[in-house]
Design goal:
Blueprint: H1 5-29, H2 34-70, H3 72-83
Length: about 100
C-alpha cells in the first residue's frame, strides 16, 4: 500500500493544528493562565517602580532630617513656616 506524500503532509498539519488548539485552550482556560501571568508581571513592574520612587523619597527626607538636626537656622525656619512657632517676645499675625 503506497501512501501519497500530500496525504502525509495534510495529516501532519491536521495534527499540528489540533495540538496547537489544545495547547491554546489549556493555556487560556486554566486558573493560572497566560493572561494572569502577564497581568501579574505588569503589577510587579509597577510595584518595583513605586519602591524605587519611595527609596529616592526616603533618601531626600533623610537628607532633610539631617539638615534640620544639624542646622539650627533651618530648624527654626521650618518650625516657623510649618507650625507657626515664634519666640516668646514676638507677635504672631495669622493671615486667613
Amino acid at each position: 500500500m503506497e501512501v501519497d506524500e500530500n496525504t502525509i503532509k495534510k495529516s501532519f498539519w491536521r495534527y499540528a493544528v489540533i495540538a496547537a488548539v489544545i495547547c491554546l485552550v489549556f493555556m487560556f482556560m486554566r486558573r493560572d493562565n497566560v493572561l494572569i501571568w502577564i497581568q501579574t508581571r505588569h503589577t510587579l513592574n509597577q510595584q518595583e517602580k513605586r519602591i524605587e520612587a519611595l527609596k529616592e523619597d526616603n533618601v531626600r527626607l533623610d537628607s532633610r532630617i539631617e539638615d534640620l538636626v544639624t542646622n539650627r537656622d533651618s530648624l527654626e525656619k521650618f518650625a516657623r513656616e510649618t507650625y507657626g512657632f515664634c519666640s516668646p517676645e514676638e507677635d504672631v499675625y495669622i493671615d486667613e
